Amino acid sequence: MSTARVAMIGHAFMGAAHSQAWRNVHRFFDVGLTPQMSVLVGRDATRTAEAGETLGWQRTATDWREVVTSDEVDIVDICTPGDTHAEIALAALAAGKHVLCEKPLANTVAEADLMAEAAQRAAHDGVRSMVGFTYRRVPAVSLMREMIAEGAVGTIRHIRGTYLQDWLVDPASPLVWRLQADKAGSGALGDIGAHILDLAQFTTGQRITGVAAQTETFVTERPLPDDPSRSGAVTVDDAMVALARTDGGALCTFEATRFATGRRNRIGLEVNGSHGSLAFNFEDMNVLEHYDPSDGDRSGFRRIQVTEPTHPYVAAWWPPGHGLGYEHGFVHQARDFLTAIAEGSDPTPSFTDGAQIQHLLGAIEQSAGQQASWTSLP
Amino acid sequence: MSTARVAMIGHAFMGAAHSQAWRNVHRFFDVGLTPQMSVLVGRDATRTAEAGETLGWQRTATDWREVVTSDEVDIVDICTPGDTHAEIALAALAAGKHVLCEKPLANTVAEADLMAEAAQRAAHDGVRSMVGFTYRRVPAVSLMREMIAEGAVGTIRHIRGTYLQDWLVDPASPLVWRLQADKAGSGALGDIGAHILDLAQFTTGQRITGVAAQTETFVTERPLPDDPSRSGAVTVDDAMVALARTDGGALCTFEATRFATGRRNRIGLEVNGSHGSLAFNFEDMNVLEHYDPSDGDRSGFRRIQVTEPTHPYVAAWWPPGHGLGYEHGFVHQARDFLTAIAEGSDPTPSFTDGAQIQHLLGAIEQSAGQQASWTSLP
Amino acid sequence: MSTARVAMIGHAFMGAAHSQAWRNVHRFFDVGLTPQMSVLVGRDATRTAEAGETLGWQRTATDWREVVTSDEVDIVDICTPGDTHAEIALAALAAGKHVLCEKPLANTVAEADLMAEAAQRAAHDGVRSMVGFTYRRVPAVSLMREMIAEGAVGTIRHIRGTYLQDWLVDPASPLVWRLQADKAGSGALGDIGAHILDLAQFTTGQRITGVAAQTETFVTERPLPDDPSRSGAVTVDDAMVALARTDGGALCTFEATRFATGRRNRIGLEVNGSHGSLAFNFEDMNVLEHYDPSDGDRSGFRRIQVTEPTHPYVAAWWPPGHGLGYEHGFVHQARDFLTAIAEGSDPTPSFTDGAQIQHLLGAIEQSAGQQASWTSLP
Amino acid sequence: MSTARVAMIGHAFMGAAHSQAWRNVHRFFDVGLTPQMSVLVGRDATRTAEAGETLGWQRTATDWREVVTSDEVDIVDICTPGDTHAEIALAALAAGKHVLCEKPLANTVAEADLMAEAAQRAAHDGVRSMVGFTYRRVPAVSLMREMIAEGAVGTIRHIRGTYLQDWLVDPASPLVWRLQADKAGSGALGDIGAHILDLAQFTTGQRITGVAAQTETFVTERPLPDDPSRSGAVTVDDAMVALARTDGGALCTFEATRFATGRRNRIGLEVNGSHGSLAFNFEDMNVLEHYDPSDGDRSGFRRIQVTEPTHPYVAAWWPPGHGLGYEHGFVHQARDFLTAIAEGSDPTPSFTDGAQIQHLLGAIEQSAGQQASWTSLP
């Protein structure tokens, strides 16, 4: 078995989650390619060195340009804020490195399109790329996709997606980079709305064709992180709501917010179809609910514990009933990415998939800017 | 204690529910006015006589015009399809009868406005009127309103309302009157959407100021009830989705559908505010969930069993933990209507409230007819 | 259709619940015999007259002996504390009246056996009797019995029954009759333990053959209801726990307590068998949970909403998804009792069934008095 | 920071879980002592070598005696079946190695007592030992203990513990070592009953003083793993039920079974006290339910998501709402064991704690062998 030398750019929340994946994936999955945690890149040398020590990287660096072109790197894993994704990814792809990039793919549609094109070109040379919609790889979500593909819900009538957080309810919460449009692109929309839109499309296999949306910034000024006595403007949305239609005729509602008091990280997705329904809720992440009307008057939503060895990804882990946690989606992502590289196939979600989500985010922003006017996707 | 002689028009589903209320209300509540189930009115003499016998009415009749002007009637209770509400209610009010009218108040905004005006005029003469949004009187819903009024959620950020049914999923389900625009006005929109819009406004005390909506008829032809070998056109919506804003600055999503497979009668209402959240779900109708962040890191959604004697309406019934059912909302409605008559006050929801909901339904239809364009309410 | 003239003895909590049943049963069910609420009997003339007025009885009386032998009474409904059951029931049966008696059937095994014998004798003359284990008639519980009888769980391995209340947690709660052995016989054991034991046997069709039990009185002195400055001894148990075996080989645990803080009236019953499991919880009384392993890796506990017209008792009521409440069990009980009288059959649970429960309660008390020593039932 | 060289004996289910802990603990926690995965010991050289490669151990060996006395080992981690625990642990302690031993501590009370004595002697020389009741270290369970210690429930009235599995429901499931008394000591009793008994004592801080129990083997013959055409006798219990009392006056029920169809790994623990209740359920392992009556008529069981940085162990992981899984208990166990070694303190649960559980298991077996006769603990 050969190895793949990973360079990871960024070492905050996502960096820790990705490190956990690179550290453990080959201990549970037969990936055909052992990852080496070669180099961690950050802007501040001292803090990067500390993070590298804690997270277990072989070395650290501060110049990502040098690293992504280095002969000693096979995979570039981008865990930085969205404003830097395009530049890093384009350079890495140009250097022939496989690229795993956190979502949203970019901060603008234009950047995302460029990245998708570059990824498609690189794929001709066997260079693989993937965007990090990790929630796809929660076993219950993957099972939801499998079951819908097998016909478990029939013709889809409704998709109901919510991603609810509450970390901004307090107006004294500081103006972090995620609240600044130049860094983050958008707010709840791109950070968590992107996930719920991706999950809706991923699980159903349908594409959203049009949207009507509204966004809102409930708290417009917040204290600066470095100097709480001063405040700055919040330049992104706090919340987004949208209606949508899919190419399969489904009627959808979506919501993403950081102001749903008490809902820490509640991703809710329900699909109702002509022959059944499926519902997922990340607060109970090892469970998928399934309603099958063929049980007649003994029908009811079944609480499937997605911990059986026949469920996606589960055989690698623990016995039935011994659930997984948030981080396992990252391990599964690393597994799928490494497997694709080893097998010479293109993994999903591709940069093209990521760009399509970026177009969706763009359409939502456009609709929200025009009083929820209907905005069609190409 | 004096009595109030009730004439009820209509004896189907709603007629049975209202009869249960008139039969029992004074056995549990001190209403100051004992209802007499005087006369039941229906179109077909035989079937009306049978219903009167079953439901316990003193006599039956087929000519509502005669009944609503009779000296032997004090209260007219309208349980017919929406296309007849206006005519009956206007005649009854003109005859000085107190009127309880099922929702939606009418099939058109014009009719509803006429009814509201007539009710306001009649009120000057001590004639009372009320529209039957009974879900307001589920104790958990009434408690939700009380708690919001007391500040339990603070400034409201989000309202999330769904009314999900599934009785039309089967395309062989027949073309009943509720699927015909001339009888029912609209489909899921007016039948159940009206309820969830009313509940959102009732519990929060806020008014919806604008909407963007879509409606859909998934199954456009259905067999005729009397001759299943022939089919007819469904002329109402099967489902409605909407975004909305309130005068209090909340961002809302609403959905009403008869195609949510497995969701028999799921009314879901969640309100997130700056200082708390409340959530109700009719499948668990004796419970109200409350999140209070002041519990610090021991906060969590509390499952309040709304069966304490201090909760709205509950003292009249059973000990704590012995829940109520669907029909009790009708008993509470009769209690509040009779009490208002006895006390000489105007009950709520008034016909004016009913007309406001009708304007909302009209705005939703208008928006849905214009590709979800934003439609403001006056 | 003929009528049955009912005399009810007692007008407290149970009296109100039974009145609701007699008032409404024939409005929803075709019972073949219309109940007349003829006479209400209580000890205090004034309070009984008030209760009769409120609850809707035609007349009231204070001498139960006179009433139960009156020619103007067909049914005697006993809603008094347990110490009076035997005397009243024996007199009524001797007078040829049909008798409905609240549970537990009596305060002692000896009384219960006498009552069972009297009821069996009376049955030869067409006199019917029944004991009021109303929770059997919650639709979800009746469905549980049906499904087990049909093989939904296979060979039963485990029965897990709990009846949890919390109304005695406060040591200042007064010394009501339910806490006095001479009136109530026992405490949690007979009041609510009797229910959970009955439900376990009713749903599974199995009989308990032996028990090991413990009881406890956590608060031994309480203020007198009429003079809180004085206190008296609690002479019944506050809580009971038991292990048991059934004639079908199941291993059981049971618990009944008035000290489960936060559990107002939580009846929990779970049955695990070789081919499935069923679970009921009265806090969610319109639901039955069913696990069917034949769904393979898509198996999960199904949340069956027991509101379909094909479910027991449900067709008489509201459309699917519109749940029932606590009181409906009493209506169903009246329906089954009246139907049995009209059809000339013996209803269940019979006094013999009630006496068998009394033997169980006796065995539990005996075991608890001997440090949980195993106590076999005949 | 110095390192601790770990030798792990056994590489099946528990071996994989412990490896995950040793591999990751220092990446999330500041443990003062970095574990080195030095040597993995198994009986079969080939399979051990494969496991060592997969799990990431530096070398493998087959002679545990040599390893536990080696100068190159600091910690011995025992993950073998219970019949070997005593011998290995005694040797390791004698050699001055810190010992982490899986539960149950031993297969007999005598062995467990020997181990506890040896551990106490070793502790005088700074040698640390700990038994692997990992469920204590699920954050919600640790929080439950904290809250009870702080008075969140007041005087404890009831403890209700169940550990329900269903992996033996199928009679064709093979006769693995866990079903053989000579290897496993007991069945559900020692394997999972030990956990629920430990959790009850751990969270409440009380000790069980007496028990009455029954055990059952529902399927007495099973196919041999290596030759399914032949069968052998199951020599352990399939299920255990028990009543118990604690030194704090609580009345308890316990159940452990491998025959609860549909319950894969459901650990349920509820504690009711004079001033509140707490409930945990491993199927929803990131949640603790708390009932606080001081919320008055707005009281209800609060669903606390135990994912806040102030909750036990949580700060090391992900943001609020991003839950943990089964394996994290093992990481926390490694963290606490390493921290104790580094700080020179004795970790808990100690071998003495493990022996106390063994005495409990012995008392349960004794009671079950004498028809549930009450059996007191010293």
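qc> The interface with chain C takes residues 153, 157-158, 160, 162, 164, 166, 169, 212-214, 216, 218, 239, 241-243, 245, 249, 251-253, 255, 257, 259-263, 272-277, 291, 293, 299-301, 371-374 of chain D (CB under 8 Å).
qc> done
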